[in-house]
């Protein structure tokens, strides 16, 4: 009986999942934004290199989010299938994130917080997609 409980952990409610997702997202955002700013200050702040910096920071933030969301937010053991689905989701949102960042940097007027605002727009777009697909598709039984 106990083995069955471990094989099928208790489902966590939507409000709890959303709350935990926001906490994990905040931590992952700190990793992402901190890495992005560090890389920009190290010299990856010209045209193409801004997207490279954003890509690297997204990967580190995403890895943080995956590991914490899998076990804490959605309480799943994970399988090769969910990992493969997760990778596909994050490849998609990688391009959404980096693309929205580049588009925002292109269309926003020059002002002191332009880079940060572009990062928030990109992050918000990708985060919305991530939560919906994780909850409704990948870890729908969690």
From TrEMBL:
Superkingdom: Bacteria
Pfam annotation, one family: GtrA_DPMS_TM
Domain GtrA/DPMS transmembrane: 20-139
Entry keyword annotation includes Transmembrane: yes
Keywords: Membrane, Transmembrane, Transmembrane helix
Subcellular compartments: Membrane
Annotated membrane topology: Multi-pass membrane protein
InterPro entries hit by this protein: GtrA_CellWall_Glycosyl (IPR051401), GtrA_DPMS_TM (IPR007267)
Lineage of the species this protein comes from: Bacteria, Bacillati, Actinomycetota, Actinomycetes, Pseudonocardiales
Family as reported in the entry's similarity comment: Belongs to the GtrA family.
Protein's name in the database: GtrA/DPMS transmembrane domain-containing protein
TM stretches of this protein: 18-36, 48-68, 80-105, 117-138
Organism: Gandjariella thermophila
GO biological process, one term: polysaccharide biosynthetic process
Gene Ontology CC terms, in alphabetical order: plasma membrane
């Amino acid at each position: 009986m106990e083995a069955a409980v471990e094989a099928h952990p208790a489902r966590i409610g939507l409000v709890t999942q959303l709350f935990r997702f926001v906490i994990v997202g905040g931590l992952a955002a700190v990793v992402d934004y901190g890495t992005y700013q560090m890389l920009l200050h190290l010299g990856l702040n010209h045209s193409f290199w801004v997207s490279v910096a954003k890509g690297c920071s997204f990967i580190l933030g995403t890895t943080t989010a995956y590991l914490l969301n899998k076990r804490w937010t959605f309480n799943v053991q994970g399988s090769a299938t969910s990992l493969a689905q997760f990778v596909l989701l994050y490849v998609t949102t990688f391009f959404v994130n980096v693309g929205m960042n580049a588009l925002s940097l292109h269309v926003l007027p020059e002002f002191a917080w332009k880079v940060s605002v572009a990062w928030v727009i990109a992050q918000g777009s990708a985060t919305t997609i991530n939560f919906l697909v994780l909850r409704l598709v990948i870890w729908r039984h969690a």
